[in-house]
Amino acid sequence: MATLREASRMAQAKNGAPGSDGVTCEDLAASGVESVREPLREARVARPDQAMRVRRKAIPQDGGTQGRVLGMPTRRDRVVQGALQLILEPMGAADVQPGSSG
Q1: Please, is 36 exposed, middle or buried when counting C-beta atoms within 10 Å of its C-beta (0-12, 13-18, 19+)?
Q2: For the chain, which residues make up each domain, given as ranges?
Q3: Which has fewest Cβ within 10 Å: 46, 47, 62, 73?
Q4: How many CA atoms lie less than 13 Å away from 45 in the CB half-sphere?
Q5: What is the H or E stretch that residue 56 is in?
Q6: What is the torsion angle, in degrees rounded to the nearest 10, for the CA atoms of residue 86, residue 90, residue 92 and residue 97?
Q7: Which residues does 4 contact at the CB level (< 8 Å), separation at least 6?
């Protein structure tokens, strides 16, 4: 649970745009990380291989005719991605040589 709380704090600190579900940082802060945990468990049981839709937004490039497309995951997905980063990053860092970069 502490990992989800920290991941939620990290997601809120970035204050990004809401995803396809429309949940904002304020909504996530008001409902707490407990509101993320149970739906996650239910989603994994009901449909384990489907991610939530990513909201897409095209932004124009300077001087170009085409824009760049941004994908905005839902708050719940950002919390899960942050939790996975907190768990997996130290494992990967342990295998890297001290002089390595990149």
Answers
A1: buried
A2: 2-61+68-92
A3: 62
A4: 6
A5: strand 55-60
A6: 150
A7: 33, 36, 37, 79, 83
Give pLDDT tens digits for 56-83: 988 888 777 778 888 888 888 888 888 8
Quote the tokens at residue 52.
């939530």
Contacts 24+ apart (CB under 8 A), 69-72: 72/16, 72/17, 72/18, 72/19, 72/20
The pTM of the full predicted model, rounded to 2 decimals, is 0.66
Q: Which residue has the tokens 């170009």?
A: 64
Q: Is 37 exposed, middle or buried (0-12, 13-18, 19+ CB in 10 A)?
A: middle
